[in-house]
Fold:
Amino acid sequence: MSPEMLKKLNKWMVYVNRTTNMAESWHRSLSATVRCQHPSYFVLIEKLMEEDEATNDFLFNRVENGMPTRPLRKKDAERRDAVYREMTSFEQEIAYRAPTKKRVAEYLEKMSCHMSTKRK
Structure:
């Protein structure tokens, strides 16, 4: 990596990619909820489902009480829609037969592309 690029990435004297404060805050909150470093998949899924329900309740109450919700940026809305389409397609595909390991890997690869700024 060029020295100029390192200077651009070097904010607070750290030479690695950093997450946003919002992501760090959510991760800290989830870690506090789970209360262990390496939870079982069952515990993790249960806590994520609880988080999803709490978030949906929060947003529903804001809408019901006429409180403003921030609109999504165009690229975030497009990403959300792409994730929804991919999840729906995969769910329909596996509704009547188990997916192969290759298909699961392909699905996870596609989903991971939605979580980064790099798109294929």
Q: What stands out?
A: Confidence is low (pLDDT under 50) at residues 6-17.
